[in-house]
Amino acid sequence: MQKSVDVLGFELNDALFILNELNMQYTVNETYGKDAKKMDGIKRVVGQRNISLNEVEIIISYFKAPFLGL
User: To 5 degrees, how large is the angle CA 22–CA 25–CA 31?
Assistant: First the structure.
């Protein structure tokens, strides 16, 4: 039976926690916007696709962390 999981929009750490809890294998690929700097900001899942019954590919991008001004 194929596991169905949707981690689209999750922060990377949360998405990986869910996938690990479900014993799913995963591949992480990065994408960058034209103004984004590599490895700068919050990593969030912006895309995903099922590779096989127990494997998913997730695509992440970097987003600026919100300034809380505290």
Answer: 115
Structure token digits, residue 27: 């591949």
Alpha carbons within 13 A on the beta-carbon side of 45:
24
Mean pLDDT of the chain: 85
DSSP-assigned letter for residue 1 = -
Whether residue 5 contacts residue 22, with contact meaning beta carbons closer than 8 Å, is answered with yes
Task: Give dist(CA 28, CA 57) in Å, integer.
Answer: 6
Statement: residue 9 has pLDDT above 90: yes
Look up residue 62 and give its two tokens.
């970097």
* Tokens 């590919």 found at: 57
The pTM of this model reads 0.80
